[in-house]
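Continuing from the previous page...

OK, I double-checked the sequence for Putative hydrolase YxeP against my notes and this is the correct one:
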Amino acid sequence: MTLTNSDITELTALRHDLHRHPEISGEEDETARRITTALEAAPPDRLLTGLGGHGVAAVYAGAESGPAVLFRCELDALPIEELGNLPHRSTRPGKGHLCGHDGHMTVLMGLARLLSRRQPARGRAVLLFQPAEETGAGAAAVLADPGFETITPDYAFSLHNMPGLPLGHVGLIPGPVNCASRGMAVTLTGKSAHASEPENGASPMAALSSLMPQLTALSHGTPQDTDFTLATVTHAQMGAPAFGIAPGEATLYVTLRTLTDDRMAALCEAAETPVQEAANAHGLTFALTYHDIFAHCENHPDATQILRNALDTLGITHDDSGLPMRASEDFGRFGHSAKSAMLFLGAGTDHAALHNPDYDFPDDLIPTGAQIFHHVARDLLG
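Thanks. Re-ran it with the corrected sequence; updated structure tokens here:
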């Protein structure tokens, strides 16, 4: 069973509509409503809404007992202004589907159409449209939601498009595929002064300027190395935008990455030490907080083999290209209680990179992704 030309036309129109109306993490109310409306064309046996915020789950049940198989996509967009002149360009200033979540949602909508036309023979297929992936908060919120207990999966699958890989080619390996990461926010506090008398204050300037190279120097290796670490300065601000005031406060944002969760504590300690030393050396106080905490994503060997079997049957090429990724993904949390795996679907070797302001999901991947997931569903659920 495959999607018809009419399906693909309608799904492409849905993807463009979602692209025009992006909503960022935690604000996906309208997107969730668009998904529930679109599911009317492929009515599930059960529909759950409000999971972990704005999450939606469509359940297609078999007549016989069997495993629960989760297919997950993301609802949220990014707080980035979209550039370019696409006819379906974002209508929301400062917001855009520049990671392809609009395409991932549409892939699952294609899967929903196929499952609604031929129900699973056993078990149940659960199509999860997850909120707040970009902040790392969504999966944890869904898993903690009491409503999720009724659809707890035995297997969990997901995909992400990957610019740099040939269009339709798949990256897939067992083991770690996405790094653990978290954002460290540093506040340095001294005392402001008149710009003509900086000696009467305590400026964070020297501490801030020394910390940026010290923290980035914690980076080591590549994701193919088990001891890989990466520290990226993403934001720095000092004082007020004025010429008459010597600054008394500064903030610094740094994103910390390790290949696996068990190495994150050591990197955090290594990053906190120079902050404390710099503050002490310059007569400042400091505060540290952590945000956007992502667990690493690891493909279970059994789930990975299920995906490989589907790809081989469909004649879709695959290898270990680009893996593990340095980027993070909160899908990894589903692997704590289910056999899970994520595949990476090539968006083209010259395609704009993820989070670039001119990125757009390739529509040609919609039927490819839906067909892969449908084959997995049939293998496990009949």
